[in-house]
């Protein structure tokens, strides 16, 4: 299974390198459309190779997806934590009531009751 993973990662690396080599041309990114940037006086441009723009878009999309999913699952994690606290509280209560019940019993019988 480990070798299949390594082969898959090698294939992905080869594809990414091929995409990067095929898209080495420089592109100019602008912060705002030309008319709006002239109106506001924000002439921000950046020249990058096209493959960096492509890979950057993929990374930004993945990060946004992970954050969105983490926020979406918050209610499920909170509910699971609340149920975990409730289970621990009930286990403590059960041990306390068992110890109170077994207070007057013989020690051997109390141990046997706890084992079953």
From TrEMBL:
Residues covered by the Lipopolysaccharide assembly protein A domain: 43-94
Protein name: Lipopolysaccharide assembly protein A domain-containing protein
Annotated Gene Ontology cellular component terms: plasma membrane
Record keywords, A-Z: Cell membrane, Coiled coil, Membrane, Transmembrane, Transmembrane helix
UniProt keyword Glycoprotein, yes or no: no
Signal sequence coordinates: none
Top-level division of the source organism's lineage: Bacteria
Transmembrane segments: 46-68
Keyword Membrane: yes
Any coiled-coil regions, as ranges: 71-107
Organism encoding this protein: Roseivivax lentus
